[in-house]
Design a protein that fits this description.
InterPro entries: AAA+_ATPase, ABC_transporter-like_ATP-bd, ABC_transporter-like_CS, ABC_transporter_ATP-bind, P-loop_NTPase. GO terms for molecular function: ATP binding. This is ABC transporter ATP-binding protein. Keywords: ATP-binding, Nucleotide-binding, Transport. This protein is an alpha/beta fold. It has seven helices and ten strands. The strands form two sheets. The protein has a six-stranded mixed sheet, with helices on both faces. A four-stranded antiparallel sheet has the order 2-1-4-5, covered by helices on one side. Helix 2 crosses helix 3. The radius of gyration is 19 Å and the shape is globular. The protein binds adenosine-5'-triphosphate (ATP). The site of adenosine-5'-triphosphate has 13 residues, from strand 2 and helix 1. Adenosine-5'-triphosphate binds next to strand 2 and helix 1.
Length: 276
């Protein structure tokens, strides 16, 4: 894939929190290209700057040095072209499901017929039809995540920035949400940056996985498996090798790139098929 102006470009990104002896610099001179349409997973140990990177992409945080370009335009603050889904249940509890999903498109001034159509489409797409008038408190944690997913897609951003959105959910609920997000991503052709600390979640979802640690990109690999990537991937030799290499890259003290866990693969193969 080419990166000429499309997608996200991060150049020399340095972020510092605090001053003097208390200063923390989670990101130092980080470079990253995310081609348009890619599903990128950002993996990393706790406290190594994954959320910090995402906040810079969202324009919520001003770096000490470096830049972020979105489709070639410098990011200087939040924008409608970038939608975020946070770790926490961030949907407004005082709005019913449909009003939550309508919030973005209505706020952008879309004609009523259009935003209503969007609400109806994305409510169905995440499996919440029939629950349009429910309050968030009446929903399960997984359903509230579905509202957040529908709301961000309904707002039609170019880039979806997701910060461990399914971290608190059980395996089956998570798998269902993975399927939903991947389907919507395919339909809408968005660019996704998905932060997780879970290697299996990254392998299940990503076209590509970068490991962020030690201030920069410690590893950068393409995931060579066709979707859907079901539980059978857990038994797959190539997937296990990728999993081990990523776990090694997550371990403290692993050197920065070069030395990616595995050569990038350009051809995809079925998740469940044995290697020829
Ligand atoms: N607002 C802040 N003020 C001061 N330090 C911060 C702030 N936000 C993050 N940090 C520090 O920056 C470092 C990176 O934090 P960040 O949240 O980006 O890590 P992370 O990889 O997303 O972690 P986790 O997986 O635990 O969510 C940590 O040392 C954290 O304590």
């Amino acid at each position: 894939m080419t990166t000429t102006g499309r997608g996200l470009q991060v150049r020399g990104l340095t972020v510092r929190y605090g001053r003097g002896a208390d200063a923390v610099t989670p990101l130092r001179d980080l470079d990253l290209d995310v081609p348009a349409g890619q599903f990128l997973c950002v993996l990393g140990p706790s406290g190594q700057g994954k959320s910090t990177l995402l906040r810079c992409l969202a324009g919520l945080l001003r770096p000490a040095a470096g830049s972020v370009l979105a489709h070639g335009v410098p990011v200087t603050g939040p924008g409608a072209d970038r939608g975020m889904v946070f770790q926490q249940d961030a949907i407004p509890g005082w709005l019913r499901v449909a009003d939550n999903i309508a919030l973005g498109p209505r706020g952008r001034g879309l004609p009523e017929s259009e935003w209503r159509e969007r609400v109806s489409y994305f409510t169905r797409a995440v499996g919440l039809d029939g629950r349009e008038r429910a309050w968030p408190r009446e929903l399960s944690g997984g359903m509230r995540r579905r509202v957040a997913i529908a709301a961000v897609f309904a707002n039609d951003p170019e880039f979806l920035l997701m910060d461990e959105p399914f971290g608190s959910l059980d395996h089956l609920t998570r798998a269902g949400l993975h399927e939903t997000v991947l389907r919507l991503w395919r339909e809408t052709e968005k660019t996704v940056v998905f932060v997780t600390h879970d290697v299996d979640e990254a392998i299940a979802l990503g076209d590509r996985i970068v490991v962020v640690a030690g201030g920069g990109v410690r590893a950068d690999v393409e995931v060579p498996f066709h979707r859907p990537r079901g539980d059978e991937l857990r038994m797959d030799g190539e997937a296990n090798a990728l999993r081990s290499a990523l776990l090694d890259a997550l371990a403290p003290g692993t050197p920065q790139r070069p030395g990616t866990p595995q050569e990038s693969s350009t051809s995809q193969r079925p998740a469940s098929g044995a290697s020829a």
